[in-house]
C-alpha cells in the first residue's frame, strides 16, 4: 500500500508563523509537524509516500528530499492553485494503485492511529474513514453513521451539525474515489471538496467503514494554540532524560528533559521537565525553564529569564530579564532586556485573538503571543495576551503592545520630554 499526504494548504489561520514557512514545517517537539506524520505512516508499514505540495512547497521538498533519511521513498506533486482537497487528491491518480492511504498533512496523531486505520481496511476490504468527536463540529466535515459503523452522510462545515462526530482526515480509498472526484461540483467556496466525493461514494452504494478515534490521539493543527497543544502532547510522552550537552555545577533538573549536543546549561539554571532543548543552545546563568517548553537549535535564554509552556524556534535570543509564557516565538528573533509577555487577562476570562479579521475565543485562560520570524523588541516591551507580531518587525523600547502588528513594520513610542530649570 502507498500513501498520499495532502500538504498544499496555506495555513492562513496560523499566521504570522506561516508567512515564512508552510504549516507542515512548524515544529512540534523540535521536529516538523509533517515529520511526525511520516513517522506514523512508516510505523504502519507503508514506505512509499506521495506528498501534494503547494504554498511554499519547495521548503517541504528541500527539508525532506527523497525521504531516505526517514527510511521512506518520497515523491512530490504540485497543486499550483488552491482548488480544494478533492482536486489535490485527483493529482495523484497516476501514482497510486488499488487501495491507498490518504492523510491530511496538518494532523498530529498518535503513531497507533495510522496503523489502526490500515488494519481496519485489511479487515473489511472497503473504503475507510477515521472519525472523531469534537466540541465544534461546525468547523469540520460532520458525519452520521449507520448501526454497523458505516458512513451514512458527510457534510462539510454545516450550520446545524447533526452530531459531534467529524471527519478526522485519514482515509483508505480504492481507485473508485477518482471517478467520484471527477463527478463532484465545486462547493460554495469554489473548491472541489474531498468530503463531497466521499458522499458520492455513499450515494453510489459504495460502503465507507468508519474507525472512531479518541480525542486525545488526534489533533487538527489549524490555529496557533493547537500547535502548543501538539507540543504538550509530544512532551507528555517524554519519560526518560537524555542529556548530551554540558551541564555546569549548581544546575537543577527535575522531571524528564532532552538536552541536545553542544548545549550549555550554565550555573543557577532551573529546569522542570518535560522540556526539550535542541543542539547548540545556551541556557543561563540563572534562568528558569518550566514544563512543556521546546527550544530549537542555537537558542539563547539568558540570566533572569523564565520560559513556560512555549515553543521558541531556531536561532532566537531571549538574553536578559524576560518572561515568555504560553507563546510561540519564531526563528531568529531577538528580545531586548525586560521583554514581558502577558498570558492571563486581569479578569481571568479566556484569551481572545484575531484570525482572518475575526475575533476568536482561543478557549484558553492562559495564552501569550505569536511572534513571526526575525522580530526584534527593544528594552521594556510588554506584549499583551493574544497579540500577534508579523515577521521582520521591530518593536521599539517601552511599548505596551495591545493589538497585532503586521509584518515588515517598525513601531516606536513617541513621547514628549519637557526640561525645566530648577528653582
Structure report:
- The chain is α/β, with parallel strands linked by helices.
- Helix content is 17%, strand content 32%.
- The chain has seven helices and 40 strands.
- The strands form ten sheets. It has an eight-stranded parallel sheet with strand order 14-17-20-23-26-29-34-37. It has a seven-stranded mixed sheet with strand order 5-4-1-6-11-8-12. A five-stranded parallel sheet has the order 15-18-21-24-27, with no helix packed on it.
- α1 packs across α4 and α5 crosses α6.
- The protein is globular, with a radius of gyration of 23 Å.
- The mean pLDDT is 93.
How would you summarize this macromolecular structure in one to three sentences?
With 423 residues, this protein is an alpha/beta fold.
Give the topology, please.
Layout: E1 2-7, E2 27-28, E3 31-32, H1 33-43, E4 48-53, H2 57-64, E5 73-78, H3 85-90, E6 100-104, E7 107-109, H4 111-124, E8 127-133, E9 141-145, E10 151-156, E11 165-173, H5 176-183, H6 194-203, E12 208-213, E13 218-220, H7 224-236, E14 242-243, E15 246-247, E16 252-254, E17 257-259, E18 264-265, E19 270-272, E20 275-277, E21 282-283, E22 288-289, E23 293-295, E24 300-303, E25 306-308, E26 311-312, E27 317-320, E28 323-325, E29 328-329, E30 334-335, E31 340-341, E32 352-355, E33 358-361, E34 370-371, E35 376-377, E36 382-383, E37 388-389, E38 394-395, E39 400-401, E40 410-411
Parallel strand pairs: 1-4, 1-6, 4-5, 8-12, 14-17, 15-18, 16-19, 17-20, 18-21, 19-22, 20-23, 21-24, 22-25, 23-26, 24-27, 25-28, 26-29, 29-34, 30-35, 31-36, 34-37, 35-38, 36-39, 38-40
Antiparallel strand pairs: 2-3, 6-11, 7-13, 8-11, 9-10, 32-33
Helix pairs in contact: 1-4, 5-6
